[in-house]
UniProtKB/TrEMBL annotation:
Transmembrane segments: none annotated. One of its GO terms (biological process) is carbohydrate metabolic process. Residues 3-163 form the Spermatogenesis-associated protein 20-like TRX domain. It comes from Crossiella cryophila. This is Uncharacterized protein YyaL (SSP411 family).
């Protein structure tokens, strides 16, 4: 049996390379083989950090009896959802339509033409209440295909037709100040007044919603929006969701109180939350927000950094097959490491109890209040970190995903500039260089790489959008014109390849020249990350301010057109439109633009830049350099004032007079933000 997964760039596929199942990667050859044999395709979709994916792999895919049944009756295709989000989106939509829910592992049965006729998620090796065993399911599908093949094919065609019919674009509508205010009201009604966050268990970090709330507060002064954001950020940072020893956030909390996480740590969550906590620290001066931002950045640079300069996708939830093994503690373990006095103090501080807050008498670590002896806590924290490092560690998916690395680049560059951490900016530039040198192939993005080798999967809309956004941030932070040039190229490609020619403002998630699936996905809703269309709208808006006159109008019109397609979603379900709402706040701001010019020898530029960076709202634009610097349109025709550094503040198409002092500049920014 050939090992077709051995050369994969996906660690998830490599985890299955030695299964007795005759796996194929997603490819035309697999479906051709299904047509040749006249058998269905069994599509299994998951990702490396997925706990239940590991469970099903151990129970079923490593079982020779089940593998023999799979090999005899199906062409078996294994897909990493992080590497092929387009495939995942199409068949997750079918799974949700058929079952009313979704998740991973996802198990779909397809015709040789790729049409789904039966979908589900995890199946156990033995039948359970309401769930057949995986073997029973396989036997039933084989029987249906063999005895009623024409009916099965017709049902599959009907599924695709219904999904296509239900996927009509949302009508155009306005996302104005009234819609934004209503969104805050709606979010407040879903807010958990006891534990913070939105909704009940399980609770996910609402990263994009938090960004919107902070921007809304910055524009309107709304105390309600700020309170929702502050309380949620504090609850997440003090609970078990946050790694109190090593920094960084887990994927979600299984309970409503943020006590017990699902322990996998994802790059995208931590990149998005780094940006949120940076913005919160900037706006409120919160010491907690600053600490969490710094620790989260250090987690990215320590635990997820790759040798090639990129960032790995995730750390597993499991260690040696046990969820949370690396992270949970007992009072006895603390006493053994720290001694009786420090052990008891740490157990009380971190809520490590005799009965346990997790499983088997183990507790997650919480820091519900700042310690009364910070030096003692730092000493104990260092001891516990060292001891934890000696434990078995979770696996790392070292696949470098374009979109998620771009989220990290933007967050590190912004945070590095605000917190004066030049090493963060250096890391962001290093990662961006990797994307340019490895992921950009013949002018087009690839979805991922591993160990410096680009994968075959092509980039999707979120890859182009978030990478353009990251490069625009680097242009502002470094002042280098090349990043603006690269961003413009990606935005132009996105408009050319992903726009729906029949519906202005609508964007597909796959390129026009990409592989044709049974349906071309186009999802406007935020999920764990901003939707591709929302991310593109934000990048286009920023690009419209930074680009030259030849592109500015095109980008602005495209951004506003895209935003108009999200109005219905923003009004009805703001929790799933957080990034759209954040972009809309930037539109309401103008966005505000600040250009600081100085001669090369004038250090006052940095004083003005620092003041502007602290005063500006998220979503604003800030650039500094010499007057008329080549390749930096925002510095064109903006001279020094009386031979000294000057700041130019504009909102939309209206600019204030240039100013030369920090006091004048911050005042001009305040007027522009609240006008």
């Amino acid at each position: 049996m050939p090992n077709r997964l051995a050369a994969a760039t996906s660690p998830y596929l490599l985890q299955h390379a030695d299964n007795p199942v005759d796996w194929w990667p997603w490819c035309d050859e697999a479906f051709a083989e299904a047509r040749r044999r006249n058998v269905p395709v069994l599509l299994s979709v998951g990702y490396a950090a997925c706990h239940w994916c590991h469970v099903m792999a151990h129970e079923s895919f490593e079982n020779p009896v089940i593998a023999e049944l799979m090999n005899a009756g199906f062409v078996n295709v294994k897909v990493d959802r992080e590497e092929r989000p387009d495939v995942d989106a199409v068949y997750m939509e079918a799974t949700q339509a058929m079952t009313g829910h979704g998740g991973w592992p996802m198990t779909c049965f397809l015709t040789p033409e790729g049409e789904p006729f039966h979908c589900g998620t995890y199946y156990p090796p033995q039948p359970r209440t309401g769930i057949p065993s995986f073997q029973q399911l396989l036997a039933a599908v084989i029987e249906a295909w063999t005895e009623r093949g024409d009916e099965v094919r017709e049902a599959a065609r009907s599924v695709v037709a219904q999904l296509t019919e239900s996927a009509r674009p949302l009508p155009q509508s306005t996302v104005d100040g009234e819609v934004l205010a209503h969104a805050v009201t709606a979010l407040s009604q879903e807010f958990d007044p006891v534990h913070a966050g939105f909704g009940g268990a399980p609770k996910f970090p609402p990263s994009m919603v938090l960004e919107f709330l902070l921007r809304h507060h910055e524009r309107t002064g709304s105390p309600e929006a700020l309170s929702l954001a502050e309380r949620t950020c504090e609850a997440m940072a003090r609970g078990g969701l946050y790694d109190q020893l090593g920094g960084g956030f887990a994927r979600y909390s299984v309970d409503a109180a943020w006590v017990v996480p699902h322990f996998e740590k994802m790059l995208y969550d931590n990149a998005l939350l780094l940006r949120v906590y940076t913005h919160l620290a900037r706006r409120t001066g919160s010491a907690l927000a600053r600490r969490v931002a710094v620790e989260t950045a250090e987690f990215l640079l320590t635990d997820l950094h790759t040798l090639q300069g990129g960032f790995a996708s995730s750390l597993d939830a499991d260690t040696d097959g046990v969820e949370g093994l690396t992270y949970a503690w007992t009072p006895a373990q603390l006493t053994e490491l720290l001694g009786a006095e420090d052990g008891a103090w740490a157990a009380n501080l971190l809520r490590v109890t005799e009965t346990g807050t997790f499983e088997d008498g183990m507790s997650t670590l919480q820091l519900l209040a700042d310690p009364d002896d910070p030096a003692r806590w730092q000493r104990i924290r260092a001891v516990l970190r060292t001891a934890r490092a000696a434990r078995p560690q979770p696996g790392r998916d070292d696949k470098v995903v374009t979109a998620w690395n771009s989220l990290a680049i933007a967050a590190l560059a912004e945070g590095g500039a605000y917190f004066d951490r030049p090493q963060w900016i250096d890391a962001a530039v290093f990662a961006a260089d990797l994307l340019l040198g490895t992921h950009l192939v013949d002018g087009r993005l690839r979805r991922s790489s591993r160990e410096g080798t680009a994968g075959e999967a092509v980039g999707v809309l979120e890859d182009y959008a978030t990478t353009a956004e990251a490069f625009l941030v680097l242009h502002q932070v470094t002042g280098q014109s090349s990043w603006l040039t690269h961003a413009g190229g990606l935005l132009d490609t996105a408009l050319e390849q992903f726009a729906d020619p029949d519906n202005p403002g609508v964007f597909f998630d796959t390129a026009a020249d990409a592989e044709k699936l049974v349906r071309r996905p186009s999802d406007v809703s935020d999920n764990a990350t901003p939707s591709g269309a929302a991310a593109l709208a934000g990048a286009l808006l920023t690009g419209s301010v930074l680009a030259g006159s030849d592109r500015a109008s095109t980008y602005r019109v495209a951004a506003e057109s895209a935003l108009s397609r999200a109005g219905v979603l923003a009004a009805r379900a703001p929790r799933f439109a957080g990034w759209w709402l954040a972009v809309a706040e930037a539109v309401q701001h103008g966005p505000v633009q600040v250009a600081v010019v100085s001669s090369g020898a004038d250090n006052r530029r940095w004083e003005l830049m620092a003041a502007a960076r602290s005063a500006l709202p998220a979503g604003a634009v800030l650039i500094g350099g010499e007057p008329d610097e080549p390749g930096v349109p925002l510095l064109t025709a903006r001279p020094l004032v009386n031979g000294t550094a000057a700041g130019y503040v504009c909102r939309g198409y209206v600019c204030e007079r240039p100013v030369t002092s920090v006091v004048e500049l911050t005042g001009a920014i305040r007027r522009a933000v609240r006008s």
